[in-house]
Amino acid sequence: MKKEAVILGVGVTKFGRVTGRSLVEMAREAGLKALKDAGVDFRDIQIGFCGHVNQPTGAGMECFAELGLTGIPVTNVEVACASQSRGVLLAADMIAGGAYDLALVIGIEKMPRGMVPLKGDPSDMPYHFMTGIMPMPGIYAMEAQRHMHEYGTKPEHFGKAAEKAHRNGSLNPNATYREVYSLEEIMNSRMVADPITMLMCSANADGAAATVVCSKEKAKRYTSTPISLVGWAGGTPMYAKGEGGGFSEGPAEYLAKKVYEMSGVGPEEVKVVQLHDAFSPGEIFTIEKLGLCPHGEGGFFVWEGNTEIGGKVPVNTDGGLVSCGHPMGASGGRMIAELYWQLKGIAGERQVPGEPKVALLHNQGIGGANVMMFRK
Question: Is 278 within the bounds of a domain?
Fold first, then answer.
């Protein structure tokens, strides 16, 4: 019989550019916060995972060494922006299979300025890298243009998602951007890839996050109110006739259906969501793929305020990637932490009203996506 997995504690550093903060210092801060939140001593951790993308070989081992040299297996995980949530998924798999009872997952990243660099020999890159199609603003812009053409979505709908994200981020002390921008300011900011403007984009940032994952049985030693991970699935792009499969970051719709089936929870029961909005159109695409609103209606759904903190399905209550910034290896852990705080009822000014009991996560990166369901 499979064991049940729970989230026992979380920790997040301030995201952004903070001079003099080393990678291992950020990892130590996030790890210690998560361990303290869980009430767990590092000596009790049985296995570790470390999500990172652009860091040196073996960075995970160096980061875990900041917490102690206990000899546990530590595995580096890289799925681009979905690295840390994939680490949590792997920890949950290990726990469900009975191999371990207590895991720590750390996500870390120090990001370069400007466009995320493409590494490797050009001859080894697929055509869409070499032709300039691949830089992520271009991918999202092409999806946005297609959505506008097919469903009548307006550029202002994407701007509205960004306006909400920045407003939510102003309530989040860990966010990179805490300024509030009007819809007009967002629409008139510098054009990056039509229709995406600068204030619809996430920023490269430094940061770390950590998650303690535990079997439900062992969690009873530490708390009477763990947050259960009741469904999870990860995957890579799937071929679909007529679709640009090479541009996909993972089959969100397919994964969501698997998670709904595994958890026994339907989309209508979800009360708070964290999803991957590296660019604000991503919110509109993804709420449709997750079944939170009908296909083609995402723009209007957002425009009408349904994804606000007090709306029908609150999305990215902490500001999402657009406001929080995006340290690639740590964003998944930050997303999990926000859902954990929401379900615990301790999100402060960002708290969703009505004591939400069910939360959904979607985190994607180049080559993979993860979907998870949490229950109070």
Answer: yes
